[in-house]
Amino acid sequence: MSGATGVWGALGTLIRRDLLLALRRRAQVLNPLVFFVIVVTLFPLGLGPAPNLLQKLAPGVLWVAALLSAMLSLEAMFHSDFEDGSLEQLLLVPQPVFIIVLAKALTHWLLSGLPLLLLAPILALWLHLPNEAILVLLITLALGTPVLSLIGAIGVALTVGLRRGGVLLSLLVLPLYIPVLIMGAGAVDSAAAGLSVGEHLSILGALLAFAVTLAPWAAGAALRISVE
Amino acid sequence: MNIAEFFQMDGYALYVWGAYGVTLVVLALNVMLARQQQRKALRAILRAAQRDRSRA
Amino acid sequence: MGTSVRQSPREYNPLVAADEDQPALTAENLACERGDRLLFSGLNISLDAGNLMLVEGPNGSGKTSLLRILCGLAQPSAGVVRWRGEEIGKARERYCAELMYLGHNHGVKGDFTPYENLQIARDLAGAQSAVTLDDALYDVGLAGFEDAPARTLSAGQRRRVALARLLVTQARLWVMDEPFTALDTDGVMLVEKMLERHLAQGGMALVSTHHEVRVTEVNIIRLELR
Amino acid sequence: MWLWIHKFGSPKYFYSVSGKLLPWVAGATVLLIVMGLYLGLVTSPADYQQRETVRIMYIHVPSAWNSMFIYLLMAVAAAIGLIWNIKLADIVAAVSAPIGASFTFITLVTGSLWGKPMWGTWWEWDARLTSELILLFLYLGYIALQSAFEDRRLAARASAVLAIVGAVNVPIIYYSVQWWNTLHQPQSLGVGMSTIHLSMLWPLLIMALGFKLLYVVILLMRTRAEVLERERNNAWVQELAQALAGRDFFRSGNEYR
Asked: What ipTM did this prediction achieve?
């Protein structure tokens, strides 16, 4: 029999594999989400509970917290596979390398981006964000968090072979996150101020399309280098 | 424009000469480090060469 | 630890016959540098169906690097590797479909059971063999351990799960980096028997090892790395 | 063209050519910068609004251009090294990063010094300064990744991927910061000039060319040193050393050959 699974079959297998693995270690999935909630609750404690102050800062706070918690869970994307040698096996699967990266990034998004999406409205209410802004927040997170996973995959693939790659990972990845942060927080900010958000969202969409094309190639090349 | 006025820079001496000073320091540092690395590399291969010559 | 090597070997369907006009795996003046040290250079390799190449040499002589270069996991600093005449860089998917690599670390997920590990390996592999997962696990002596999380198994048993991967897939080329590590005498015999059967069916293997590989009527090519 | 890259790509050929070239480029650099400084500091007029502080422009703007130029050149060299496996390109990319980072740092410091009299604060989240700050992070990330690998070849290839990804993202970062700046500060008090008279343009262009040549000088020196280090057990380096040792290098003290 020739190749047992086509490209999409392999993608499905890889995603199922990683989801199953993650559910076997539920704590690793929950930690970044708890981190997201804690970081957001720090701000009212730090800045005082005044509603209009919190509302003004809410878009930036929510987006920076989302960005940091997405980055927190990046490390796990390739680390365990690198440790036990299964990353080598994955790189010898007869499928294009970017399929592995897409599967890993999608799984990372399902386990960190999506839960952020579900948690964000509650935290937005804590920060007195007006309702129409909460809706825009969800849209921007839906468009933005996959970009965080994809670009993060490049950073992780570059640093997976290094001993203390964690700090280096944030130095490599955060500057590349800045456009997403600006567009995301900017959209929620102008939604709260009642302005139009069409422009922001279209740019976010463009960033997502850009990340989907650039990241798999770059992370794939980086993986083959890190495994050497 | 006499020399004193020149260095005065119309009261903005701190900013103008500060900027030029920092630029000079950083660029001079780059050039010196480059020269030092070049000399170190040359000295290393020379020492190796002299060791071979003495042994040959 | 009940390890029973089955007497009547399970009949494995023969490997797909390949056109035998030129050697399948060839490498021309391969060179490899690690850091500033030149491990080897000007190395030519040619491996054909039915042959076993043993890569021997002291520690640090570049055995592992050579195997990883031949698999495409690492880049040589010079030279080129070809599979069926095509550079492996260009024909990557076709080459990976016919290759199975067993490296130092076994690539077995500790959170999965041997059964699950094998299932994923088979789903992702190029060609699947007719052997069922349970039979493969039985053949490598893991009967009774199919559903225990792999992290609870011993290093030798995890090595056997990796060996079972070779049985459930139809790879023509086996590349094994010191396959006998962590294996008891039964395990060593198991690997030798698997190699014999694989080579008899027109497969080929590239093995780096320090032990003597006792395989009968097999054409062995020895490659000595200083 | 391909033969040229391959020939020039060989470290031995590069070392001898750059040896001859270096004194001339260095001379031209010094000439240009001295001329630029003279024109900028002495003959060109002060600005009616910013008065003397406008003279900072003659180093701030060339540095800013250099910081961007070097990053893109670094990404191109890294890509050449990654795709065609040319060791010299890897060295050029690795060595350019600290130089680029220095120019970015200079841009930031001179920018804040230039802005202080106008803005009254040392740092203003002005679009151009903020982009330069992010560019500095990209440089630091590249240098950190480069030094994190033990094997030089892997370091070169991994940081090449980062340089390419970074270079592709630089325009995106630049426009999103520009966009962010206009969003929050409708009237942006940017550093710099709306109109530049001719008398100010000349020193600016001369200084810009001088800074670019200065980059080339430092690049050639650092690359030559790196080539000597990496090729030290090659025949041509040993011959060079023998030749130099023969002429008692230590007394003559010349190190450009």
From this structure: 0.85
